[in-house]
From TrEMBL:
<dbReference type="GO" id="GO:0032259">
    <property type="term" value="P:methylation"/>
</dbReference>
<feature type="binding site">
    <location>
        <begin position="521"/>
        <end position="522"/>
    </location>
    <ligand>
        <name>5-methyltetrahydropteroyltri-L-glutamate</name>
    </ligand>
</feature>
<dbReference type="Pfam" id="PF01717">
    <property type="entry name" value="Meth_synt_2"/>
</dbReference>
<keyword id="KW-0489">Methyltransferase</keyword>
<feature type="binding site">
    <location>
        <position position="649"/>
    </location>
    <ligand>
        <name>Zn(2+) 1</name>
    </ligand>
</feature>
<feature type="active site" description="Proton donor">
    <location>
        <position position="701"/>
    </location>
</feature>
<dbReference type="InterPro" id="IPR002629">
    <property type="entry name" value="Met_Synth_C/arc"/>
</dbReference>
<dbReference type="GO" id="GO:0008705">
    <property type="term" value="F:methionine synthase activity"/>
</dbReference>
<feature type="binding site">
    <location>
        <position position="658"/>
    </location>
    <ligand>
        <name>Zn(2+) 2</name>
    </ligand>
</feature>
<feature type="binding site">
    <location>
        <position position="490"/>
    </location>
    <ligand>
        <name>L-methionine</name>
    </ligand>
</feature>
<dbReference type="GO" id="GO:0008270">
    <property type="term" value="F:zinc ion binding"/>
</dbReference>
<feature type="binding site">
    <location>
        <position position="567"/>
    </location>
    <ligand>
        <name>5-methyltetrahydropteroyltri-L-glutamate</name>
    </ligand>
</feature>
<keyword id="KW-0486">Methionine biosynthesis</keyword>
<feature type="binding site">
    <location>
        <position position="733"/>
    </location>
    <ligand>
        <name>Zn(2+) 1</name>
    </ligand>
</feature>
<keyword id="KW-0479">Metal-binding</keyword>
<protein>
    <recommendedName>
        <fullName>5-methyltetrahydropteroyltriglutamate--homocysteine S-methyltransferase</fullName>
        <ecNumber>2.1.1.14</ecNumber>
    </recommendedName>
</protein>
<feature type="binding site">
    <location>
        <position position="116"/>
    </location>
    <ligand>
        <name>5-methyltetrahydropteroyltri-L-glutamate</name>
    </ligand>
</feature>
Amino acid sequence: MASHIVGYPRMGPKRELKFALESFWDGKSSAEDLQKVSADLRSSIWKQMTDAGIKHIPSNTFSYYDQVLDTTALLGAVPPRYGWNGGEIGFDTYFSMARGNASVPAMEMTKWFDTNYHFIVPELGPDVNFSYASHKAVEEYKEAKALGVDTVPVLVGPVSYLLLSKPAKGVEKTFSLLSLLPKILPIYKEVVSELKAAGASWIQFDEPTLVLDLESDKLQAFTDAYSELESTLSGLNALIETYFADVPAAAFKTLTSLKGVTAYGFDLVRGTKTLDLIKSEFPKGKYLFAGLVDGRNIWANDLSASLSTLETLEGIVGKDKLVVSTSSSLLHTAVDLVNETKLDQEIKSWLAFAAQKIVEVNALAKALAGHKDEAFFSANAAALASRKSSPRVTNEAVQKAAAALKDSDHRRATNVSARLDAQQKKLNLPILPTTTIGSFPQTIELRRVRREYKAKKISEEEYVKAIKEEINKVVKLQEELDIDVLVHGEPERNDMVEYFGEQLSGFAFTANGWVQSYGSRCVKPPIIYGDVSRPKPMTVFWSSAAQSMTARPMKGMLTGPVTILNWSFVRNDQPRFETTYQIALAIKDEVEDLEKAGISVIQIDEAALREGLPLRKSEHAFYLDWAVHSFRITNCGVQDTTQIHTHMCYSNFNDIIHSIIDMDADVITIENSRSDEKLLSVFREGVKYGAGIGPGVYDIHSPRIPSTDEIADRINKMLAVLETNILWVNPDCGLKTRKYTEVKPALSNMVAAAKLLRTQLASAK
């Protein structure tokens, strides 16, 4: 019985790639140094899978930034502004597309389906001259083969690549991206031919867009593409991999009819309805890659239940055509439990990180082949039973309070227009008020202080003194820059979700459970294992201290319940909305304590609300109903004069703008700068928004410093569709990943642009 892994984490067990990338970007190491670190990581990953007995081991899932950008490089689809003149794409061009450079901005970045992973959005049009410009897929296959490992090269499929792209600037928005298929398929043919010549017997095309609601013309594109590739694929086993949701019936029919394709991979964890389609319509003689080990969460697999499902599937497709697989790439989970020496042993027994999931996949494959490891299965059953019966999982008072929430919609008593008037009387802000999103640069010294405090190398008194000094520095800088609504810079926080999880019951934390978000950016999601409550105030001390340092309004900074949920590894033994309601009640307590402490502006970030939107439209309404309701629960009890802000990160918000309005926040700050003001098109199309809004005026994910004129131009574009009295001026996200040498001039230019526009507006009256 064969086993397969869709993809694997790239950063390394101790984030080796992250540090190598940042060293290279800072000019402290060479390209050769970076390539050496990456080669060592790939070698160790392939060895790990080989040692675990995995038959179908992936290659070309390693990336220096993301797999879609790798495909853009493969196809030579470099936007002209980067000055690429052909040939093999090198690091300069590649990282300029991802991060921008001193003279040109980066390409747009957005979320990868409904995950916290990001990708760089291809910019395409009729004039793009595609060419085979990156031989990475073939080189990595050969690299593995030289180590004695015959891998399955993985490519982003041609149709999904185009469907995930956008028309380049200056190209009509109605341009059909799928019309470019005939231009990119010759390059795919070249790659496939080179892989065949190098000895590949399998190739994997990731076509995750097949789980979306696709119109018939888009489904037809899959038929056309693989018909065109059929002769090139001859002699190879071609696997089409899907993940993250059910494959709709029409897409399933299209997929299983594709020419030249011998195998289909399905997510049977998040796509349980696909099982019914497999049982009734799976084509004879084809391979089924059954994704039963969860690639997106960290809970141990129910091996007995998975084996039962596999036995059913074996009866449908045959023993020699069934392959045990992960539900998706393991990129979305942590690397290895072995590195968690301080994690509570009971909770640890309930978990499986990427390294353990590889073992689970192989154990299932062996059991199906008649070689069941009884001890391994027994230990798994015992761990599942322990989790189910553990008293630390359930808090009856919390469950009762959360259940009672369904009796109200938790709206503030006064409409937003009246609230904004009351708030303005209290805050007395200028038009186009300036603010930032929350965090300020996390310096080496600041990280050292937090690390030493955690390790008990410095006292609590020394820690508090150091953090207060950092807050005072950030406050004084903002006053010098003349920012209107201040933040304390979050020096006490390593991560916006981890910080709150550490102070809430029902959460557990890892030492090395890092997951890639984009580029070198890694996050360490908390583990929600039980019912959630707030034992004591979490931020009041620091926010009060910061407010005491200035006469200007100081924002209290919180993470919202939906974002805490979506950026955590969430318990899978109750519906996600029930966990979210529990978190909402905890945040509500914190909001009300901040208000009592004299904090007049409170930001409750819902950076990941859009990210959690189900991939299928039929499931949108239910999710948005409980997600928006959860946000309103957090602040329904505050006075009209308390201004509630929220912030949302990279995503396509246009399709949920009415739900955003329904959140009933007083001010929303939202990503806009890196997506060609895509968000503003909603307002051009007539959507009326009466609350305060701050579409980000510059991209903090790039080291590039925008000029005053550039920011002023962005503000003018916003003023063309938004009322002057509701527009805020702010960066598009927190500043923790930037350096002060970048932040100071960028914020100075931002404030100067706001003042310039104020002067112009005043003189126009």
